[in-house]
Amino acid sequence: MALPPIAILGAGPSGLTLARLLCLSSIPYTIFEREETAHARDYQGGTLDLHHATGQAALKEAGLFDRFKDLSRWDATTMIANKEGRVLVSLAPEGDEDARPEIDRKELRRLLLDSIPAESVRWASRVKEVTKELDRTMSVHLENGKVEAGFRLVVGADGACSKARSLVTSATLKYSGMHYLTSSIPTTSPHYRNVKALIGNGNYLALGSGKGIVAQRMGDGSYTANACLHLPEHWKTETNYMANPSKLRTWLLHDCFADWAKVNTDLIKHSEAGFRTWILYGLSEEDVHWEHVPGVTLVGDAAHVTPPSGEGVNAAMYDSLSLARLIIQHGIDNLDLAVTEYEKALFPRAVEHIKAGKMDELLFGDDAPYVWLRTVGIDVDGQEKRSGGEKVKMSEIELLGS
User: Fold this and answer.
1) In 159-309, where do the E strands start and end?
2) Quick check: 303 and 319 in contact, CB under 8 A?
3) Do domains 6-76+101-173+283-359 and 175-282 have the same CATH topology?
């Protein structure tokens, strides 16, 4: 059989969105995914909020929106609190266009995977590098020594450490200074009722002194509990805390959050699982402009990774929607034209995405969350545009999220 003209690196939301949209137009492709199976990392990842004009728009065009509505939570409210446990503002959806329904990352992935042929995904295919050949086709080299050659386009949808990025830019990832340490509170916890009463179906962000405790409700009713800290980049390997959850939990409570209110620290204290680390990296605004290279392009975090701003998965899915539309419009015999037009529109959009990611500096600054609240016009003492504690439409501001 002839090799499909398009290779997609990564079976995450951006890669799978592109695959689904190409599939609907009978454009062949192959996805290379490093994970062993579709469920290899079901235990990882929190929830994602999909926005009307980006993530939701991609699912509508993919014919998956009705199923998404059944899987997602449309009544999620996000509360911003201080280290003393006072809720300063509650961010609530108002109307369909304002709604940012939450869906577990694994459920979104399963929704997209189930919409494409199973044989289109090559599992356990860890990409080592991508090369351009003398005949101008592209080759995908796998770490197991195999080489798949003859692609006319390789799309890097493989996240922050994309194996395709070096073909278009020399930009390297920059450490943001932040680690997220994630555990969970199951529905069987004796403290579950208290957590549910605090957070409900949404998210809770307690911020202050350059730190944060963030919790999210999952689809099965459990809650993730995240400690967000400024730590050395290689903290994980330079300490032995990750191998000893009890020791890590004690360190967090006694050394990192000792002066925080009990309502906040109980989210860490009563978490039961071990911890996972999420080390936050980003690219700069200058890194998202490159000279067009025929045969390769980037979508999602591969193109414009940034610390969380609530836009990550939405920007990634919209990238794939934009690229798919142009490939379908111009046809597989004009892939270079499609990619050129896609990148022309991508660059300014990616710059804005990276600018939004700089909100992380406000959320985890010394004066957080007050400096961020003032930036968006909310004053907890009632002196500015809004008073603290009231509900604010989500569409009016951007906040930490996915």
Assistant:
1) 174-185, 203-208, 211-217, 223-230, 276-282, 296-298
2) yes
3) no
What distance in Å separates the CA atoms of residue 269 and residue 36, rounded to the nearest whole number? Answer: 34
Q: Which CATH class is domain 6-76+101-173+283-359?
A: alpha beta
* Cα(331)–Cα(297) distance, integer angstroms: 16
The pLDDT value given to residue 43: 63
Which amino acid type is present at position 232? P
Which residues, 6+ apart, have CB-to-CB distance to 99 below 8 Å? 52, 74, 93, 394
What are the DSSP calls for 109-128, one per residue? HHHHHTTS-GGGEETT--EE
Could you tell me whether strands 223-230 and 211-217 are parallel, antiparallel, or unpaired per DSSP bridges? antiparallel
**For 272-323, what is each residue's pLDDT tens digit?**
989 999 999 999 888 999 999 999 999 999 999 988 766 889 999 999 999 9
Identify the band that residue 90 occupies on the pLDDT scale cut at 50, 70 and 90: confident
pTM exceeding 0.85? yes
**Burial group, residue 395, by CB count within 10 angstroms (0-12, 13-18, 19+):** middle
Residue 111, C-beta contacts closer than 8 angstroms, at least 6 positions apart: 64, 67, 68, 71
- Give the residue from 259, 270, 253, 250 showing the smallest Cα distance to 196: 270
Q: What is the largest CA-CA distance in the chain?
A: 69
Q: DSSP state, 254?
A: I
In tens, the pLDDT along 343-382 reads 999 999 999 888 876 767 778 888 888 887 877 777 665 4
Contact 386, 373 (CB under 8 A): no
CB 7 within 8 A of CB 32: yes
Q: Where are the beta strands (DSSP E) in 126-232?
A: 127-132, 138-142, 147-151, 153-156, 174-185, 203-208, 211-217, 223-230
Domain map of the chain by residue range? 6-76+101-173+283-359, 175-282
Residue with the bigger pLDDT between 285 and 115: it is 115
CA distances to 35, 72, 313 from 48, rounded to whole Å, are 21, 9, 7
Residue bearing tokens 């920007």: 315
What is the spatial distance between Cα 9 and Cα 15, in angstroms, rounded to a whole number?
A: 7
Residue 118 has pLDDT above 90, yes or no: yes
CATH of segment(s) 175-282 = 3.30.9.30
Spatial separation of the C-alpha atoms in residues 164 and 302, rounded to whole Å: 8
